Automatic annotation (TrEMBL), chain A:
Protein name per Swiss-Prot or TrEMBL: Putative HMP/thiamine import ATP-binding protein YkoD
PROSITE patterns the UniProt entry points to: ABC_TRANSPORTER_1, ABC_TRANSPORTER_2
Family: Belongs to the ABC transporter superfamily.
Species in which this protein is naturally found: Thermogemmatispora aurantia
Domain of life: Bacteria
GO cellular component, one term: ATP-binding cassette (ABC) transporter complex
Entry keyword annotation includes ATP-binding: yes
NCBIfam families per the UniProt record, alphabetical: PRK13648.1 (NF010167)
Domain ABC transporter stretches: 9-250, 330-563
Localisation per UniProt entry: Cell membrane
Transmembrane listed as a keyword: no
GO molecular function list: ATP binding; ATP hydrolysis activity; ATPase-coupled transmembrane transporter activity
UniProtKB/TrEMBL annotation, chain B:
InterPro entries according to UniProt: ABC/ECF_trnsptr_transmembrane (IPR003339)
Keywords: Membrane, Transmembrane, Transmembrane helix
Keyword Transmembrane: yes
Native organism: Thermogemmatispora aurantia
This protein's encoding gene: ykoC
The protein's name in its UniProt record: Putative HMP/thiamine permease protein YkoC
GO CC terms, sorted: plasma membrane
Length: 578, 272
């Protein structure tokens, strides 16, 4: 009984439909969240996580969508009978895209905006603005223009604007998806602070939460049809349902994977660890138990846990034979580039042999995309700086270049130029002047390989994100280029489609092509036989490049680099190691 | 959005945006009606003085911002006398003769009048544009002139889109080039190419607009008929004083021209 009394969000038999869609976004959903609780909401993309968030603050059904059945009660108020104005003071939602949340031009005005909408008096506004700025630690940026802020600061301002409305419930809808590691850290720290005040009930929708798992008190997993399939205490959920989660393709903490893998090999950790430090503790405990039996052999991966709770890893390089010598596919020779008064690239030198697979890693703004754009003529390098397949790039015409280099942009939609999936693939082949029958054959084969055959007649813009990405890779491969460059190929994809795409890339690489992926989730490390990595430092020369230039590898993780620890653990990803 | 607005703390920056509109617009309309070159020239000087004087825009910045227009107007000024129908001005003395081409005094003066009129109007509007933040202008309109607030704040949100769309356009262009899209060709190829840009551009613009709308509504935008204001826009004494002074100054110039008979007819009195 006490459960229902303190339930802050109560959802009963909720079915939500958007106009023009045949299938409901949420179906017969039941959920209760208690006051002060922190819940993690998981689910594959398209399972209705964001939709659920919008039912909390009444935008569904008041602005969009329709409640076909059931009801939502927030702080005891039925959202159907409560105005958005009232609910906005109960529920604050921090969205994914910091840019898309701003209306005003300065920090102060932006925070005032919500308060003005609710007709607060200027005195009250003043109090709340300074209070919320203090909470997010941005008091000194009060009069700053929002476009001058970093991504992390923007999200903090957006959160301050929500906190000013003094909500009881905070929803974080993938607030770090567009942020670099530094910004992510800022937002996570702030989230931790919100939690510590004890004032808020928090709902998290996130993909990469390794650092925050200790805050989560409940895990709610939505299925493909938008129903709750798992709901429980995280330790229990991860211990018993890991395989279900992985089948769904949702994010799972790396540590949970590790624990399961260890368990598989007869080494179960107690208690089941959710965070790295818990895992370390549990492992230490085990070692104490088995002390004297055997000295453990030196680990190949060293791990350091810092006081601030985040970790740094350094992986030893995979042993591999040197790639066959000979003409490099891509050769960059002390390339520098300045834009808008900023040194973006400084004295970059790289040599990538044919058949190599290179991961280009570095923080946001380190120049990954800029470097890649020099390799395809989007940016023009000076003569003698970039050589492709033995020829200076400045001597290769744009037409010819497209035949040698394929480039997959961050947003696959940018590259679509026709109205049907099959035309999209056939386009490049037609440009090459192949006979119609061959075009048809090769198109079919490619679509089949990329599992897009059933969508051949659909418009590219109607595909799901993962399908769009696959299509953009397929179009780039149609012409059989020798070099393929992918700019953040797993950006914005859920676990399932990201893994599927990478698997496809490994396969293709085994077959013929050569890739330069630059990605946030740099999941290649230690995984593949012939991987090489070049790490770019902020606005500067490569911090290290390994294998690629034939130089000796330096094992030490570069101190002070902004590389997120999360991804390196990813190499332990069992799905990828098949 | 800071295309032309220059951040500053000057007297003019601190004025209510609407008082600048009220001061400048009638003068602008009057200048549009002039037909001789001299009165616009006087207003050109007046506006420049206001911009580098009380608006505290550095002469260098001012020069840089108006240079593109000045250059195109100079080209126009040089070509105009040769393009215009000669019989309109062949009663006026010839200033210069270049082979078969005759340069009539009347044509030169008419060209100067047209050019200076445009230039004076541009500089007068610069007084407003260089010193007024667009969000202040829209908020003042909402508060003082009953401009519908939903529309006003919608426009403000749209301003955040502009740089993003520009960036998007640049990326799409590059992406299409890599696909091997025809880069040369006639008007038809060009139109076809723009059509191809349009779909991804619109898709992302609509998606972004939807997100912004949701974020705004989540913060109770449009939930109530009324809204309060953290910063109140109203006319202060300084605003009235500025309008009065500016008008007096302009009237003084006009009076000076009228008394000395320097002023040509206005465009609606010309035919009489």
């Amino acid at each position: 009984m006490s459960e229902t009394r303190t339930a802050l969000i109560e959802i009963e038999d909720l079915t939500v439909k958007y106009p023009g869609r045949r299938v409901p976004a949420l179906e017969h959903l039941q959920l209760q969240l208690r006051a002060g609780e922190t819940a993690l909401l998981l689910g594959p993309s398209g399972s209705g996580k964001s939709t659920l968030a919008l039912t909390f603050n009444g935008l569904i059904p008041h602005s969009i969508g329709k409640l076909q059945s059931g009801h939502v009660r927030v702080t005891g108020l039925d959202t159907r009978q409560t105005t958005v104005a009232t609910l906005a003071q109960r529920v604050g939602i921090l969205f994914q895209d910091p840019e898309a949340q701003f209306v005003m031009f300065t920090v102060e005005d932006e925070i005032a905006f919500g308060l003005e909408n609710l007709c607060f008096s200027p005195d009250e506004m003043e109090r709340r603005i300074s209070e919320s700025l203090r909470l997010v630690g941005l008091t000194e940026l009060r009069y700053r223009r929002v476009e001058q802020l970093s991504g992390g600061e923007k999200q903090r301002v957006a959160l301050a604007a929500l906190l000013a409305l003094e909500p009881e419930i905070l929803v974080f809808d993938e607030p770090t998806a567009n942020l670099d590691p530094q910004g992510t850290r800022e937002v996570f720290n702030l989230l931790r602070r919100c939690k510590e005040t004890g004032r808020y009930t928090i709902v998290l929708i996130e993909h990469r939460l390794d650092e925050l798992m200790d805050l989560v008190e409940r895990m709610v997993v939505l299925g493909k049809r938008g129903e709750v399939i798992i709901n429980g205490e995280p330790r229990e959920v991860l211990r018993t349902h890991l395989s279900t989660l992985q089948e769904l393709g949702v994010w799972v903490p790396q540590v949970a994977r590790l624990a399961h893998a260890l368990q598989h090999h007869g080494c179960s950790l107690e208690p089941f660890p959710l965070t790295l430090s818990e895992a370390v503790e549990a492992l230490k405990g085990r070692r104490a138990l088995s002390a004297g039996q055997q000295e453990p052999s030196a680990p190949t991966t060293s791990t350091a846990v810092h006081n601030d709770g985040h970790q740094r890893f350094s992986a030893s390089p995979p042993t591999r034979s040197e790639p066959d010598q000979g003409e490099a596919a891509i050769e960059v020779c002390s390339l520098s580039y300045r834009a808008a008064g900023r040194q973006v690239l400084q004295d970059i030198s790289l040599a990538i042999p044919r058949g190599a697979l290179l991961a280009l890693v570095g923080a946001n703004g380190a120049g990954k995309t800029t470097l890649a754009q020099h390799l395809i003529g989007v940016l023009q390098p000076p003569r003698g700086r970039v050589r492709l397949l033995g020829r200076d790039i400045t001597t290769i015409s744009a037409r010819e270049l497209t035949r040698h280099v394929g480039y997959v942009f961050q947003n696959p939609e940018h590259q679509f130029i026709t109205e049907a999936v099959e035309d999209e693939v056939a386009y490049g082949l037609r440009v090459m002047g192949l006979p119609a029958t061959e075009v048809q054959e090769r198109t079919r084969a490619l679509l089949e390989r990329f599992n897009l055959l059933s969508l051949a007649r659909a418009s590219p813009f109607t595909l799901s994100h993962g399908e769009k990405r696959r299509l953009s890779v397929a179009t780039m491969l149609a012409m059989g280029q020798e070099i393929l460059i992918l700019d953040e190929p797993t950006f914005g994809q859920d676990e399932y489609s990201a893994t599927a795409l990478l698997e496809l890339l490994w396969q293709l690489h085994d077959d013929y092509a050569r890739y330069v992926p630059g990605s946030h989730l740099r999941p290649v490390c230690g995984r593949h036989e012939s991987w090489q990595a070049a790490l770019l430092r902020d606005a500067s020369s490569p911090l290290r490049s390994r294998g690629a230039a034939g130089r000796g590898a330096s094992d030490a993780a570069p101190a002070g680099s902004a590389s997120a620890p999360a991804w390196l653990v990813r190499s332990a990803h069992p799905g990828g190691a098949m | 959005m800071q295309v032309i607005y220059q951040e500053g703390e000057s007297l003019l920056h601190r004025l209510n945006p609407l008082s600048k509109v009220v001061a400048v617009v009638p003068v602008l309309l009057f200048v549009a009606l002039t037909t001789d070159p001299w009165l616009p020239l006087a207003f050109t000087a007046l506006a420049s003085a206001v911009i580098v004087g009380p608006a505290r825009i550095s002469p260098g910045t001012f020069w840089r911002l108006q240079a593109p227009l000045t250059i195109s107007l100079l080209v126009f000024l040089i070509l105009y006398p040769f393009m215009v129908r000669a019989e309109l001005f062949d009663h006026t003395p010839v200033v210069l003769r270049l082979g078969p081409l005759a340069l009539y005094q009347g044509a030169v003066l008419a060209g100067m009048a047209a050019v200076l009129r445009v230039y004076a109007m541009f500089l007068l509007s610069l007084i407003f544009m260089l010193t007024t933040e667009i969000s202040d202008f829209i908020r003042a309109m909402v508060q003082q002139w009953r401009f519908p607030y939903r529309l006003g704040y919608g426009i403000l949100a749209a301003f955040h889109f502009m740089p993003l769309l520009q960036e998007e356009f640049r990326l799409i262009q590059a992406a299409h080039r890599i696909r091997g899209i025809e880069t040369h060709g006639g008007v038809r190829v060009h139109i076809e190419r723009l059509r191809r840009y349009l779909i991804p551009l619109l898709t992302s613009a609509i998606r972004r607009a939807e997100r912004t709308a949701l974020a705004m509504e989540s913060r109770a935008f449009g939930a109530l008929k009324q809204r309060s204001y953290f910063r109140r826009f109203r006319f202060s004494r300084a605003d009235y004083l500025f309008i009065l002074c500016f008008w007096l100054l302009c009237l003084l110039v006009i009076a000076l021209f009228l008394l000395n008979g320097w002023m040509g007819p206005l465009s609606f009195t010309k035919e009489l």
